[in-house]
Amino acid sequence: MDPPATADAASSSSCTSLRKRTAALSVNTSSSPSGSGGSRSRERESKARQEMEAADRGEEPMSPAGRLFRETHFNCYIVALLGLGAPVDVAAARAGLEATLVRHPRFSSLQTVNDVLIGVTSAALSRYYFRKTTSSDDTSGSGTKAQKNIRLRSAMLVNIRKTPGLHTLAEMMDSSKDNAVKWGNQIGYIVLPFHIAMHDDPLEYIRLGKKTADRKKRSLEAVFTYWSGNLVVKLLGIKAAAALCYGMFTNTTMSFSSLAGPAEKVEFYGHPIVYIATSVYGHPHALTVHFQSYMNIMKLVLAVDDEQFPDSHQLLDDFAESLRLVRQAASEKS
Question: What is the pTM of this model?
Answer without folding.
Answer: 0.71
